[in-house]
TrEMBL record, chains A, B:
GO terms for molecular function: chloride channel activity; chloride:proton antiporter activity. The lineage of its organism: Eukaryota, Metazoa, Ecdysozoa, Arthropoda, Hexapoda. The gene is Dper\GL21306. Residues 660-723, 768-817 form the CBS domain. Residues 10-20 have a biased composition (Acidic residues). Belongs to the chloride channel (TC 2.A.49) family. InterPro entries: CBS_dom, CBS_dom_sf, Cl-channel/antiporter, Cl-channel_core, ClC. It comes from Drosophila persimilis. Residues 93-102 have a biased composition (Basic and acidic residues). Residues 78-87 have a biased composition (Polar residues). Residues 1-102 are annotated as: Disordered. PANTHER family: CHLORIDE CHANNEL PROTEIN CLC FAMILY MEMBER, H(+)_CL(-) EXCHANGE TRANSPORTER 7. This is Chloride channel protein. Keywords: CBS domain, Chloride, Ion transport, Membrane, Repeat, Transmembrane, Transmembrane helix, Transport. One of its GO terms (cellular component) is late endosome.
């Protein structure tokens, strides 16, 4: 399992991973443009880059019988040893082997090896003969209605269960934090004598604090590092990649969910600078994937329900709903949740899907409301904690002249956010290079936790910010070095979860903090959050980002008021909110959903939407000038082949001819089992064009009539679905035969050698997808990109004017420059 | 102009329009399914359905020089006289004419004639040589940035101007209504002596009322009927169709906007049962189309700006933003506006587009807020009238046991809504058949207005519903037959605009009405609104629908309270809101945006989202069981070829072969000008496959290498872009040459006869779109539908396995059963 790269690059094998990635597809010298569309003729120059793989290191492909992550392993098959031997000649014995056809003249498609080898999801529905048969059987109104109803039931379940998990995490964190900080405060009060203002003994509470931080953090980090490294970080980049169509191994497992839940609880309770929101979104995605499939690989349990939904297409739709439900549960923001899913994920827009997503979000918020209201002893649905950043009681007002100020704050947010992203990326690069050991990663988390506690203690010790009790906003004010009837404002900021601190900054009455306090706090938290995100713990980045923004936003209001005491418009909570929006915009760059989430979680009026948007837009535009949002940065750093919304500008003038990979390994419509076996054994491509009208042995010059997936071919070989014995299997074979093995297809190694069936043939007509998307070699890349993305493709065949194959284009061809 | 069919079918020529539409594409007897994909061979059986059109009635194509609606006329060219002569043989002279090739063997593509002939928009970008040249010239970062900035500026302008128009309509309606109802009240008080409770003389006020209703309504109806019939109704079905990709003639003209604005003002002031919301959405769309094009056909003015945005693709995106801005301005609901656009329109999801749409919506709401706040003399942005259904001051609460009640109300709403839709469709069918004359349509509107006034007067006269003054919710209470210190609750309901009545029903304190009053009011308004929608006036259906729902929702609460006086949960405003949601869900079926709009316009808490959604879902599902939403019904009744989200169930088992139209009129890559001229002259197709490798004269058996649009061919002929004289035009010709004539392409009639250029040839290589979307004949219809819709296509070429044309599929092929 160790050789699987995680998005956050936690694994120790990747010490040299940050070397510059070799450009994948060299733009081949294209023929000079002519006005007349030149017809691609058949004599594609045979490239001299054939790779001999007769002695393939197939040992690494041997399935580990105890490992339930077989396909995940397969996903990460190291590429051929011949990677650097691109100029090697084809050994003659290999030539004989493969029915006299060199099947490995593949040029560019195997040259991508230095990056982790993420596979794509099969979002495209394979409408083969079997699928059509099933459709015909189920063409009745009743079946389609039933499937629709079941789909609704699943979405409702997703909403409920996601909310329950979110509630549990919420309540546990709240209770444990309460215990922790109560204990610390008691300890402070015990050790600092109330009468001695010159400085008491803070060492004992400090040590307690360290202990109560280090233990949970170490536990959480160890869980994440040793049990499921994919759970590190917020999970949003992973979910985003998954929804974009990249197969991230083990991202939607129940084990992942369990580790993530424990990880986030321990980290937040441990006092790291992070929030629980991101992990909740990931949790929603796992719940969605789990429920919709009706089976669990972790528990090796198949409930034999929802079988019709077992394909990547349906699963991805459910995960979209799950992510939305997670956001909704995290923020109490159903519309924000739906928009988050849309903004970050859905490339294929469908009214029904969005509608179901919205319902899942609303159900999720309702369930959350129900449980939390009950938990807090309220019996109508009025638990305002659902606005988890605190509801503004008074409608926020603003004046015309404040709009430029908001814009200025937005620009500040953009600059700070871009700097934060850049700093964080540097820290993570450093981390990846110099802390490769697992134990080191755990230690690092512990060190950061201790560092945070120390800074906090130092601040509390040295800054003497005492405020009168009475209009105190904290539940448990600490007196510390203050007079009676006063509380320590610095301790109030630190002695709670980050989320509660955001609430304080939004809603504390004016004059709750010194300027110095807040300045120090902003700087410390900025650095701390930057060091924290990227640790091997489960934590989201939303809350610390909002916290930093709220701090400097409030600070701005305080400084301005200090300089111009006659000003009246400076509601500090309002500026804290704008600051939070600006900082979030600068770091995350998710403008649509962020604005709605902020609106929903703080209950501001529609009229205050405009200032929020001004701050967000300014922050996003300024930030975009320097770098990408933090999620996209993480995705890029880890070389996940995620498809952007628009083709990269470098691709603007190119045509398909210049990015395609060729020649392509093809299979004949009716081909020998032996050939197929050899092909599968010797290359790890996932899609093979099916050709017809083949002259001689040159399959790649046949006419395209379909595409067949690796997984399908393996099932065909495993189940011996040959022409010669078709009377045995034909009656029982249906699309379900293929669906049963989803999503962990066996590897080719699990197919026995075909000694006795060496002359058997396979007729692919009923198995292949007869409607692959084909484009012409002279089609422009922006255009085919649009098709590729809109249809969620995995393979796109490039044909010439005679419908003969000219190349193949996959997701990866659109990514690297 | 009269022969143009409007969506609401106002024109008098269509008296026989509601005859059953002949099934368009007979499902051809497909070959028996075989396991092997059968390769389409070249010998397509020549259909015996060639149509001779030598003596085409091209007289109808003669351009009317005074008419600025030339392309619109062309769009509605009646089909060939040979429609019913499908079995006629090809006259030999025609065969000679067209270079010995029968160009009119077209079978199914001309058989669709009995419906209005809507054309599609060219949402697909034609990436021809000229386009690529432009791209290359503008490949610089700077150009793309500049275009992006201009796009933003346009979206911001759209938001501002739409809001200004909405404000003007709003304020004018408010002021005029105020004047009207004040005058009527004075008249009532003058004519009904305060001391005589037995019945005063209501005749004079009644006559005044009639007069003040009839005059504006007659004026508005006359404007709509005689000047711009497309402005009738709410405009939402038209905008929806446009965004779906159907070219609705004259839908986005400035003249249309002017008539619509005056029409809606007169109708609402006249007291018809309608709202101003739908027309505002239409207004937003017009503004967007107008601004983005930088020129106006109505004023024959070209500002020579925004030239890069002059194509259907860009224009449609702007119209999407305009629609959203319109919704936002109408309801003060920016998120609702964006979601409305998404739900009703966007088939191609794009993050940037949505983001711009949201910004336009927010700008629009902000502008509205600004203007209305200033108008009402407030100087911070606190004009609560922006919640145009009135803000609920107290958070609405609900108990668990109310959820089934909400569901029950939802079901009621679904039933009432379905009945309303069905009744309204019947009334409109009747109207279309029996009131074909223009003057009749105006009279009808007047009669309905009088009918409404009479009913209202009767109610006021006969129902004696007096309430004590003091907690009166109306601004100008009418005493009428009541005691001193009392006001007449019936008159209060009627003496205001429908919108204000919705507000009253939501927010009046409990006990403001008698049960009898509200029952009568509900029934009267239900019938009245049903009779009104479909009149030849500009009016939306949202407000009357919400009003009816609010009335019966409030009635439900009152009746329940009457039966069980001990119940406490029955806040009448809450039930009015749920009733309005249920009724809207039942009539409109737009669940996502409706729920958000209702939330935003009434300012309810997120926790009340759940009851709203329960009511909406129940209403939608129950309603969907019976019929479609009112907008879709209107679209269907008018045979607008709008693409649904999913393919029709009838298409589930079919393949492309069974719906395609063939043979197709093709043009050679280098063809004679004479042939092209003849083709354009004799058929009205809009897309012609460009073929190559033609053996002999049979163009339709060549290999497909592109597609060229009718409009492009006409420009080529008009500008004489021939191979033989290329040295004259080649240096100056660019994509701008073609863009200049957008959107009203000249007809073929404007091309002079090619006598001297009879032997000239056209090389289409640089003009045609070299990347048409091609599918195979055996591809399943659901699949190609997905491609067609996701890419917003107009033509889809069906090819065989050798890349020779097998047929063509257009929007219409997916519509009729």
């Amino acid at each position: 399992m160790d050789d699987v790269k995680t998005l956050i690059s936690l694994d120790e094998e990747t010490t040299d991973d940050d070397e510059p990635v070799a450009p994948k597809v060299a733009v081949k010298s294209s023929p000079p443009p002519t006005a007349v569309v030149d017809i691609l003729n058949d004599d594609i120059p045979t490239p001299s880059t054939g790779v001999g793989v007769g002695n393939n290191n197939s040992g690494t492909l041997m399935p580990d019988k105890d490992d339930d992550d077989l396909p995940a392993l397969l996903d990460h098959t190291p590429s051929y040893s011949g990677n650097s031997a691109l100029n090697g000649n084809l050994p003659p014995n290999d030539r004989d082997n493969a029915e006299s056809e060199p099947i490995f003249r593949v040029r560019s498609r195997t040259a991508v090896a230095s990056t982790p080898n993420y596979e794509s999801l099969d979002y495209e529905v394979c409408e083969n003969k079997l699928f059509q048969d099933e459709q015909k059987k189920r063409l009745t109104e009743r079946f389609s209605l039933r499937k629709d109803i079941i789909r609704w039931i699943i979405f409702i379940q997703i909403g409920i269960i996601t909310a329950l998990i979110a509630c549990s995490i919420d309540i546990i964190i709240e209770e444990l934090s309460e215990l922790k900080y109560m204990f610390l405060m008691t300890s402070v009060e015990k050790n600092v004598p109330q009468t001695d203002f010159t400085g008491g003994d803070l060492v004992v509470p400090f040590l307690y604090w360290i202990l109560l931080s280090v233990v949970p953090v170490a536990f959480g980090a160890a869980m994440v590092t040793y049990i499921e490294p994919i759970t590190a970080g917020s999970g949003i980049p992973q979910v985003k990649s998954y929804l974009n169509g990249v197969k991230i191994p083990r991202i939607v497992r129940i084990k992942t969910l369990a580790v993530k839940a424990i990880g986030v609880i321990t980290s937040v309770v441990g006092g790291l600078a992070g929030g629980k929101e991101g992990p909740m979104i990931h949790a929603g995605a796992v719940v969605a994937a789990g429920i919709s499939q009706g089976k669990s690989t972790t528990f090796v349990k198949d409930f034999h329900v929802f079988k019709a939904f077992r394909d990547d297409h349906e699963k991805r739709d459910f995960v979209l709903g799950g992510g939305a439900a997670g956001v909704s549960a995290a923020f109490g923001a159903p519309i924000g949740g739906m928009l988050f899913s849309l903004e970050e994920a859905a490339s294929f827009w469908n009214q029904n899907l969005i509608w179901r997503t919205l319902v899942a979000s609303i159900i999720s918020v309702f369930t959350l409301n129900l449980v939390l209201s009950t938990y807090h002893g309220l019996n109508d649905f009025t638990f305002t904690g659902l606005f988890n950043l605190g509801k503004f009681d008074q409608p926020l007002k603003f004046d015309y002249f404040e709009l430029p100020i908001f814009m200025l704050l937005g620009i500040t947010g953009g600059l700070l956010g871009a700097a934060w992203n850049s700093l964080n990326t540097k820290i993570n690069g450093f981390r990846k290079r110099y802390i490769p050991w697992k134990i080191g990663k755990v230690c690092e988390a512990v060190v950061v936790a201790m560092f945070g506690v120390t800074l906090a203690c130092t601040m509390i010790y040295f800054i003497n910010d005492c405020r009168p009790l009475g209009n105190d906003p904290t539940i448990h004010p600490v007196q510390l070095f203050c007079e009676d009837n006063e509380y320590n404002a610095v301790a109030a900021l630190w002695f709670q979860t980050p989320e509660a601190t955001v609430r304080s900054l939004f809603h504390d009455p004016p004059g709750s903090h010194k300027i110095l306090t807040l300045t120090m706090f902003t700087i410390v938290y900025y650095v701390l959050s930057c060091a924290t995100f990227g640790l091997n713990v489960s934590l989201g980045v939303f809350i610390p980002t909002a916290l930093v923004g709220a701090a400097w936003g409030r600070l701005f209001a305080m400084v301005t008021y200090y300089l111009f005491p006659e000003t009246e418009f400076l509601h500090p909570g309002k500026y804290a909110l704008i600051g939070a929006a600006a900082n979030l915009g600068g770091v995350l760059r998710m403008t649509i959903s962020l604005s709605v989430i902020l609106m929903e979680t703080t209950g501001v009026e529609t009229s205050f939407f405009f200032p929020l948007i001004i701050a967000l837009i300014s922050a996003k535009w300024v930030g975009d000038y320097f770098n990408e949002g933090i999620y996209d940065t993480q995705i890029e750093v880890n070389h996940v082949p995620i498809l952007p919304w628009e083709p990269l500008p470098q691709y603007k003038g190119l045509t398909a001819r210049e990015i395609l990979s060729s020649p392509v390994v093809c299979i004949k419509l009716r081909d020998s089992a032996h050939y197929i076996y050899n092909v599968l054994k010797k290359c790890d491509h996932n899609g093979f064009p099916v050709v017809d009208d083949v002259q001689g042995v040159h399959r790649s010059q046949g006419r395209v009539c379909g595409i067949v997936l690796r997984s399908q071919l393996i099932v065909i070989l495993l189940k011996s679905l040959y022409v010669e014995n078709s009377r045995f299997w034909l009656p029982d074979t249906s699309i379900q035969t293929f669906r049963d093995v989803y999503p962990r297809y066996p590897s080719i190694e699990s197919v026995r050698k075909l000694d006795d069936k060496i002359n058997y043939t396979v007729d692919l007509a009923m198995f292949m997808n007869p409607s692959p998307v084909r484009v012409n070699a002279h089609d422009s890349v922006p255009r085919i990109f649009q098709v590729f993305r809109a249809l969620g493709l995995r393979h796109m065949l490039v044909i010439n004017n005679e419908n003969r194959i000219a190349g193949i284009i996959t997701r990866r061809d659109f990514i690297y420059k």
